[in-house]
User: What shape does this take?
Amino acid sequence: MIAQEVIQLADRFQKLELHAARGGREVLCVLLELIEERSKTSIRELADEVRENITYLLKSLPPYAPPLNSINQVLLILEEMETMPVDQQEIKRQLVVLKTGTQNITLLHRKIADGLAEILPPEAVIYTHTLSETVLGVLLELYRRGRIHRVAVTESRPNNDGWTTALRLADKGVNVCLTIDAAMPAAIENSHLMVSGSEIINPDGSIVGKIGTHLAAMVCQYYQKPLYVVANSNKICPIPWKDFYHNQFTESDLGIPSSISPLQVTGSYFDITPARYICAYATEKGLLCSQDISEKVNEMRVSRWLTQWVAESC
Amino acid sequence: MLNHPAIDLVCERISKDLIGGAADTAKEVMSAIAQVVEDSKAASLEALYGEMDAACLAILKVCPSFAPPINVLHMMMGTIESDLESLTSLEEAKKHLKETEKSFNTFMETAFEKIATIGAELIKEGDKVFMFSMTSSVWKVLRKAKAQGKKFAVLVTEARPGNEGLWTVDEMYKSGIPVEVSIDACLGELIAQSNIAFAGVDSVAADGSVFNKAGTFLSALVAREYGVPFYFVTDTLKFDTATLLGLPFRSELVHYNEIFVEKKYDTGVTVVGSLFDVTPPRLITAIITELGPIPPSSCINVMWNMRRSKRISELLPDWAHNKL
Assistant: This one.
């Protein structure tokens, strides 16, 4: 049986109302609630119901690593518990430990800012595209430390997430410039570096990001400006998720009425930026290179059930 | 000195942005100056030159950064300067000016047909053709290819903030050419699946770089990344001879209300950026003109062969810096 909370969460994912980092936390909360509410006769029964709910969630999940990693961690705990004689209370205890570990966002942003601060020039002018909770938090932390002169943001169509970034930064006193996506070359040329959030950091170091991120990376390379991916390490995804992202634009994304019907609208919400464009990954574990990402992925465990589900869905 | 009513009219129409585009502005400027010549009561060639000089100055004062009307001024003033140097009679000079006007009109009638034919040859059966923003010159190329019986599809992005890309969608739909549209941030995905890319031109510089709607440079950069040939399509009237003098392109800025449409924020966010950008020559495969496909490095040769006026060249630095 699919829980109402899971249905609601899936709906929010489908509407892209949740960003990646928050999505990871919400998934964990919903799955924890689900497990707390159920009192099944056996762990196997509980695990089956959780998997049924996870399957429902996965079908509407955008290419976001944090929710996928949250799902993976829950599944790993369940798989472990299925092989040893423990009660459901132990599962709940482990999930609470898991949830507690994700709570201190401010500390996370500070740690990421520590690494980034080491490479920032004085009076840094930073370009960023779209909206990322982590990038926003880290930029505000760097501004608090007096390390930022100006931030340039592109609006990030179709849902103009860049406006939110610009408005939130300006609200805290940061000197912010906003421009259209097509004018990103000038914004990048006049900046010292680009920082980008990511939805997923793939095992090969490539990132899945909001559409336009790859374009900005090309421009950075053209002007020889370094691109730093700013992300929590839970964006590192050991699962080959990029093969099945499917969020396509619709006519309403253009936001302008057209006399033509049906209007053939094309394109995806996300793109993939290859690792060769990325200078480093600023995470709470320090500045990482793409090889570090591969090593981290090798250390990560992936649920057998999830591996199989992904293989069958691709 | 009072200007001819035709000059006052064209200046007003330029100032109030009542003329469709650069080519139409050039036509109206040519027609107005030709009218000055035709109605002139000047008793000497010097006096006619003075009347034309006043007319050109009035036009330059209101003229935006379009190369075509400036080139028209070069053509007409260059013609009379040449006659002044060779001590031609007033009547003969008027005849030469009439010939210049006629030659310009013939050029305007025939150039685009030649360009369309040359451009259409580049489109192959089954191609996906990326086009940035809107421009009638590229539309003509696409319609020509369609008329040749080729089946192809057009991919276009909206081209914020004016969304001119949607005009292209309308035009392609009317012409029966399959078209798909996306947002500007998605042009990487669109160009990656294209075989060829086209864009229009606002101005071509002496070094072969091209000034056009913001997003053109980005399109050309992506095209190079994916190995897709990137062509500009224009007549040589858009070759900006002011750049031979080292003058920069004049650009307009993006305005606050073009981004925050109908929304008023008071948060300290500054809206920046230009409505135009410059595509460097190394990203350009060729510029399709009535003379044929021209590599960017040859643009300067074309410009050296265009008629230029000493007087207009003298005025352009002040025009470029809004000091006229």
About this structure: Chain A has a mean pLDDT of 89. Chain A is about 50% helix and 15% strand. The radius of gyration of chain A is 20 Å.
